[in-house]
Amino acid sequence: MLDNILKRSSVRRYEDKEISQEMIDLLLNAGFSAPCSKDSRPLHFIVLEDKVIMTHLGENLKYASMLRFANKAIMVCADKDISPDCWMLDACAATENILIAATELGIGSVWTAVYPYEDRQEVVQNFVPTPENIKVLSIIPLGYPAKEPMIKDKFDANRIHYDSF
Predict the structure, then answer these.
(1) Which of 108, 117, 152, 159 has the fewest CB atoms found within 10 Å of its own CB?
(2) Contact 64, 141 (CB under 8 A)
(3) pLDDT tens-digit series, residues 50-88
């Protein structure tokens, strides 16, 4: 698992190759396995498969244009009524779990933020409406990488502090 964390990278270009339902189920299981505040389990996921919806989102979300070419995508959501103070933290943990699981499965992925940006939330609400209590944190485009992902060493010893800053 540590290897997958260290080699995880953002993939924005994909092959035209189908992702199986079994792979999607594994990614969703990874998302549901993330820790959440008080074990409240506010998470919801919307699996995007419709190319029309994904194209509209890709054309209207400035930093998510790769959705137009992704095979599928997962919208990570949470019920703010269940976890009013921590829904976004719970959804962040789920997003990261999905990204790491995708790396393990050889599926390219990238975190595209919806929350806290009101303009992005509005775009998403127009194309994939959710109830008022369900907040969309992120959309994760998915596809098999068109090229080998570039692995970056992000370790920075200068930003590690012990006992004080």
Answers:
(1) 159
(2) yes
(3) 999 999 999 999 899 999 999 999 999 999 999 999 999
